[in-house]
Amino acid sequence: MDDEVALDPRFADRFGREPRPPCQLYLISPERYDPGFPEKLKAALDAGVVAAFQLRLKGVEDMEILRAGAALKPILAAYDVAFILNDRADLAKELGADGVHLGQTDGSVAEARSLLGHDAQIGVTCHDSRHLAMEAGEAGADYVAFGAFYPTSTKATTHRPDPSILSWWTTISEIPCVAIGGITAENASPLIEAGADFLAVSGAVWNADPASAVRDFAKLLK
Ligand SMILES: Cc1ncc(COP(=O)(O)OP(=O)(O)O)c(N)n1
Ligand SMILES: Cc1nc(C(=O)O)sc1CCOP(=O)(O)O
Ligand SMILES: [Mg+2]
């Protein structure tokens, strides 16, 4: 009899570590902020549990990021959703955000940590690189992000990791990992099965009916 049991990576720990919590949804904003966005966000958050929200505005003045952040912060707090600002630790500090997401050219974890403090959530883009992920972990990142797993029209991407990078990461580290890039409720299963702690999603929610898209993810993640 074959006693090799296929274990869910979430419960397969052999080193006495806590099981990882179930995979959760991490919403990424559209690149441009429109005045109707707070209502769309509320509709999305009413539809299912969301762990985190990243304000990712591109090519706009700092003042616009600060205005948008100030408008969204109380909504996120009311739904108990972590508020992460993309790119800018300085503006995250000014907004009193819960954390910042740093790409490879957005500054160091150490600088962000000294600005934002011990409790801040600092995430780092690691593309398809085990090396970058280990560096980010050693630098004190609170999560590492791998992507883009699927083609996306939200951003030009040049890296295409295999889902196995998520399984590898969950085997060697307790630091949460985020999967990003072209993720929809239809294509997310291999990433969840590989051990993603969070699915970071933009287009599949905001380019569709946000409430219905979040409901579809919620069914998958329950
Ligand atoms: C959760 C998450 N993962 C990856 C990214 C990409 O960050 P970066 O490489 O800095 O690219 P931009 O998003 O700044 O265009 C992200 N924002 N969030
Ligand atoms: C912002 C971002 N970063 C990526 C990376 O690979 O690092 S992919 C991506 C786009 C995420 O939006 P969507 O869910 O619409 O594909
Ligand atoms: Mg960036």
CATH homologous group name: Aldolase class I
Tell me the structural class: alpha/beta
**What's the total number of strands?**
8
Total helices: the number is: 9
In which range does the helix fraction lie? 25-40%
Examine the secondary-structure arrangement and name the CATH architecture: Alpha-Beta Barrel
Binding site for 2-[(2R,5Z)-2-carboxy-4-methylthiazol-5(2H)-ylidene]ethyl phosphate: 152-154, 182
Function: Condenses 4-methyl-5-(beta-hydroxyethyl)thiazole monophosphate (THZ-P) and 2-methyl-4-amino-5-hydroxymethyl pyrimidine pyrophosphate (HMP-PP) to form thiamine monophosphate (TMP).
Binding site for 4-amino-2-methyl-5-(diphosphooxymethyl)pyrimidine: 54-58, 86, 125, 155
Protein name: Thiamine-phosphate synthase
Which key terms come to mind for this protein?
single chain, 222 residues, alpha/beta, TIM Barrel, eight-stranded parallel β-barrel, 16% strand, globular, binds the ligand Cc1ncc(COP(=O)(O)OP(=O)(O)O)c(N)n1, binds ligand 3NM, binds magnesium ion, TMP_synthase, EC 2.5.1.3, Thiamine-phosphate synthase, thiamine-phosphate diphosphorylase activity
